[in-house]
Amino acid sequence: MHFQWYPGHMTKAKRMMQENIKLIDLVIELVDARIPISSRNPDIDELGKNKARLILLNKSDLAEDRQNIAWAEYFSKKGYSVVKVNSKRGGGIKSIQGVIQEACKEKIERDRKRGILNRPVRAMVVGIPNVGKSTFINALAGKACAKTGNKPGVTKGKQWIRLNKNVELLDTPGILWPKFEDQQVGLKLAFIGSIKDEILNTEELAGELIKFLTTHYAGVLEEKYEIKEQEDPYACLMEIAKNRHCLLKGNELDTEKAAMMITDDFRNGRLGKITLEFPEDYE
Ligand code: G4P
Questions:
Q1: Quick one: which of 21, 136, 137, 182 could link to 87 by a disulfide (CB 3.0–4.6 Å)?
Q2: Is residue 29 within 6 Å of ligand 1 at its C-beta?
């Protein structure tokens, strides 16, 4: 899914978020484990202030394990609860219920002191498009979920998914925009396929990816495509096109096809587990 944001969209999304956030105790923010900073919304901390916060490093199956651990530490130090998840396969989902209770313990304690017992924690899932919000909600709620509200005869209102007696989830996630005006952020979002590929042409995008990989994951391209990595990304691209028989009529190398192949292999994890940004650069 590709997404294009306009100022009107952003104003609307922010207004909806401001309305919904009043109803909840906990913000469950999904980030892409490959780009945990670039996949965040610039305004989320302001929007979510005074709420309990849980960050999920989603698609952790596609990111490097060592970096997932480092990112979890990075966000923990900043006061967020953090869980590494793979929503597609259900990895990490079982631990979420316990983490939610822990993240909301101050609120639960406040309620208890006021004599309010057993009021469920209310949570909302937020994140940029394509980060995995729907997949996560399905994985967490499963089939057992019961929706409350908006049924005939029931008071009109928001739809809540009752996960158990302790937690209710707003059934529509909050969609927020990334900080795409930052070129480096835009590039990383394009690498993972979250924004329109037209930000750069296919070959330029693959060239930037090749540059990143040869710098930070030396040997990956060499092994996958049996090429010799070299400084000039375009030379690498031509080698890959040659080895993979990406040819145009007249046996000319089809570097565009090769570029699409590399980008696609990266996005689908076929180049291995790769993280595109590192916590030490954000300390
Ligand atoms: P959204 O609601 O935030 O927009 O995201 P959505 O759940 O639609 O997920 C976007 C894509 O990301 C989906 O792939 C989904 O399967 C994939 N995805 C979600 N969580 C994970 C994860 O933890 N790991 C991996 N590897 N992928 C994940 P798709 O290409 O749109 O569909 P499909 O190929 O899965 O059918």
A1: 136
A2: no
